[in-house]
Amino acid sequence: MTVTAIVSLLVALGATGAASLRWLRIAQREHYLAGATTRFGLRWWRSTPLDLALALAGAAGIAVSGFVAAFAVVPAVVALVAPRGLGIRGRTSKLKWTRRLVTLSLALAVLDGLALAVGALSAGLHGAVFAAACLTLLNPGVIDAALLATRPLENRIASSFVREATARLQSIDPIVVAVTGSYGKTSTKGYIAHLVSTERATVASPRSYNNRAGLSRTVNEHLVAGTEVLVAEMGAYGPGEIAALCSWMSPRIAVITAIGPAHLERFKSLERTLAAKAEITTRAGVAILNVDDERLAGLAFRLEAEGKRVLRASGSNSSADVAVLATSGGLELRLAGELIGAEAVAESELPAATSNVACAVAVALELGLDPKSVLTRLGNLPVPANRLQRYVAGGGFVVLDDTFNSNPAGARLALARLAAEAPGGRRVLVTPGMIELGRTQTEENAALGEASAAVVSDLVIVGRTNRRALGAGARRGNARLSIVEVDRLGEAVAWVRERLGPGDAVLYENDLPDHFP
């Protein structure tokens, strides 16, 4: 009996250690947010009937191991082989053994040890076996507990970098332009840097550096003496985060690009999203808002009533303070209704959202640049990587790469762009759907599937996260639409290369890392 218990204990502990790598990877990919690992655990265990059955079998094994130690092997085996598709090593998002991950791993080991000690003290060796059996499947929850336990330490470490960045900002004293929004932040940031850098020494935060750690690193590593303008993208997963960023990186110009359901899973409502994004305007001397968004149009009036200076930017309203309009020949710039001029841009190279360009132009003008000079720069706007980039593949078909987009408005724009491609040819949409849309996620993905049915000949659905919703919507739009289901993007790419040729087009809309089902 003792030998069996010891073997069962060792097997359970080994399985827990190996399985913890897959859940630590999720914690890292989800920015070490406590609670995220458990949410993903539940998402994976419910992703297929077989995974759910394996989870139930593992839970039954845990229960029985309280009486018969040998049954601890059951959840251990389940933890090693499932959830299916969530690899221990990972394909697209491998573990990076950073200082923070090592700290989290040590905290996890301590909590696991405490659980084993409690089990042993309460029921001896058998109690330790039962505790080890529980840990095999409850690993995500223990990781979240470790994240909570290490949060004070991580905050202290982050604060030291923020203090260094604050001192550097005060010493160099650049004009800080802060950009936020549910989507369009990165594109707008790139446009601002493009327009302003010809006349002002400009630094822009790298594309993923939009939180406390990323922005303090931007300042500490990239801000040099003589920098005149710092363009800082600011992201948020909840209220108060942008206000905290602005407390030490005080913007003189604040830009809000759009309010939408991106991250609605975290914000819970669009009203809370708007309030959180509006925090960026509190310390700014001027707020630049995309008033094509009705919520931001309302915010403009509220800010003005509070005495704030507001510039209204638009991609459709020619009477806005700054309007950049798409025309048959390119882009047209108007200031308060007055035509400044037009710049030739090929139709295939027009920016997906001219409202983002208008926001960037408003920043450039606020910084004192000449409107005519700014206009000439609209002819060669940078195309943000993986955001509706167009190129022709080796097989002769057109590729629209929109893999960094995950919002309904952007998906509609991308579909419209696809509809203009390959007249008479084959059009394909490859997508895993959109995520973090909260209670609207099923509805929005079904709507995407339905909208695609009017444009494409084939819909290739990647992964299981939104498979049901996308398929249902597509069939509602066209019952005879060709729908292909694959588990990985690589399989979709192979499918496209095998079937498409000159005269065809494919849109890759969004991509999910492999820690999503």
**How would you write the strand order of the largest sheet?**
2-3-1-4-5-6-7-8-9
Mean pLDDT rating: 93
Per DSSP E runs of 2 or more residues, the count of β-strands stands at 15
- Give me the CATH architecture of the largest domain, please: 3-Layer(aba) Sandwich
- Fraction of residues in helix: 40-55%
| Inertia-based shape | globular
Proportion of beta-strand residues: 5-15%
Overall description:
The structure is a single chain. The protein has helices at 2-29, 36-45, 49-65, 73-81, 99-137, 139-172, 185-196, 212-222, 241-248, 264-267, 270-278, 294-305, 354-366, 371-377, 408-419, 441-453, 467-477, 489-499; strands at residues 175-180, 202-204, 229-233, 253-256, 286-290, 309-314, 322-327, 330-335, 338-344, 389-392, 398-402, 427-431, 458-462, 482-486, 505-509. It is of the alpha/beta class and 517 residues long. Helix 2 (36-45) crosses helix 6. The longest helix has 39 residues, at 99-137. The mean pLDDT is 93.
Quick description:
The protein is an alpha/beta fold and 517 residues long. It has helices spanning 2-29, 36-45, 49-65, 73-81, 99-137, 139-172, 185-196, 212-222, 241-248, 264-267, 270-278, 294-305, 354-366, 371-377, 408-419, 441-453, 467-477, 489-499; strands spanning 175-180, 202-204, 229-233, 253-256, 286-290, 309-314, 322-327, 330-335, 338-344, 389-392, 398-402, 427-431, 458-462, 482-486, 505-509.
